[in-house]
């Protein structure tokens, strides 16, 4: 029974991430952002944690990955990506308008 539940969880995870261009993995001390864009040549991560200075994702197989240390004194971050120089707002549960008429994703942890 336990193997069946575990198999169902793995299949669900793979189905969700296979259809998604973006997902986040959280560990106790870090956040890893994954972007799956076959047409991407350059992906940058912008967040309020880095004063919205672009940080480069690294290409790993089909995914672009950016990992940062989870801040001890915060429980959320606001972020967006730039893909090939164009702003990309990934699917996320919460969004907020920024000061320039655009949107930011909010990730709570």
What does the model show?
By secondary structure, the chain is of the alpha+beta class. It has one domain: Immunoglobulins (Immunoglobulin-like, Sandwich), CATH 2.60.40. It is 17% helix and 45% strand. Strands 3, 4, 7, 8, 9 and 10 form a six-stranded antiparallel β-sheet that branches. The chain has a four-stranded antiparallel β-sheet with strand order 1-2-6-5, with no helix packed on it. A hairpin with a 5-residue loop joins strand 9 (94-97) and strand 10. The protein is globular. The model is unreliable at 6-18 (pLDDT under 50).
**CATH class, please?**
Mainly Beta
Count of helical stretches: 1
Radius of gyration: 15 Å
| Fraction in helix | 10-25%
Features:
single chain; 109 residues; alpha+beta; six-stranded antiparallel sheet; 1 helix; globular
Secondary structure blueprint with pairings:
Blueprint lengths: L1 H18 L2 E5 L3 E6 L7 E5 L7 E2 L1 E3 L2 E7 L6 E8 L2 E3 L5 E4 L5 E6 L1
Antiparallel strand pairs: 1-2, 2-6, 3-4, 3-7, 5-6, 7-8, 7-10, 9-10
Short description:
This protein is α+β, with helices and mostly antiparallel strands and 109 residues long. The chain contains one helix and ten strands.
């Amino acid at each position: 029974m336990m193997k069946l539940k575990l198999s169902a969880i793995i299949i669900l995870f793979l189905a969700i991430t296979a259809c998604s261009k973006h997902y986040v993995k959280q560990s106790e001390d870090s956040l890893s952002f994954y972007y799956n864009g076959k047409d991407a040549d350059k992906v940058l991560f912008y967040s309020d944690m880095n004063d919205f200075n672009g940080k480069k994702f690294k290409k790993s197989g089909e995914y672009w990955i950016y990992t940062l240390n989870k801040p001890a004194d915060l429980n959320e971050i606001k972020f967006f990506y730039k893909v090939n120089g164009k702003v990309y707002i990934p699917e996320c549960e919460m969004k907020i308008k920024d000061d320039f008429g655009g949107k930011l994703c909010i990730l709570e942890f």
